[in-house]
Predict the 3D structure of the following.
Amino acid sequence: MASKPTTTIDPREAAHFGTMAADWWDPHGSSAMLHKLNPVRLHYIRNAIDHHWPQGSGGFRPLAGKRAIDVGCGAGLLAEPLARMGAAVTALDAAEENIAVARAHADRQGLAIDYRATPVEQLDASGFDLVTSMEVIEHVADPAAFAAALVAKLAPDGLLIMSTPNRTPLSRLAMITVGESIGGIPKGTHDWHKFLQPAELAKLLEDAGMEITDVTGISFDPRYGFTLSSNKAINYLLTARRRQG
């Protein structure tokens, strides 16, 4: 019997994102769409943190004394804000190029972040209070194994937050037909058939022992840009915790 792979990383996906490393922090470069998404994601994450740990809500460092891991961190667009919120942050990415850029940028910001080009399945650490993985699961080779690996890193009272595109006709139009031609998303970034609908992602996490506590859509408003929304047709964020009892 063939042994199961020890990583869910798709080498082709890692290579694709590695080519974007040099200008990852350029808001007008190949990661421009992520820069536009990041404020909305951070707003959602902060609200989830305050709801899960209300004793720290309202302060500038709600994650003080807590450990966080960002899986699929790119060059650190989310890892750095998590560190500023007080967390001891570990951040993983499949592309060595991204990790190198992330380390250099964090050093210039005076932020101590443990960046590693290590698959989450191979990380010899667990018990993280917060596990985040933004726009990653649609790029891995085995989504179920990846979801289980994220859950395995979570502390018993921890919080898991993910985001991913939905698999709908509108997401194909917005993210591939338009986004990868004139919308600033590098061509070849997405495979629409690998997008997960909310019920599908929820099932993967529930099978790994999680309880879904929130699913919120991300929509685009021409007046304001990206906003949190009840409409999940293009993209959505999901919060989960370990099943109680």
Notes: The longest strand covers residues 154-165. The radius of gyration is 17 Å. The beta strands are 67-71, 88-92, 114-116, 128-134, 154-165, 210-221, 225-229, 235-242. The helical segments are 11-18, 32-52, 79-84, 96-109, 143-152, 169-178, 198-207.
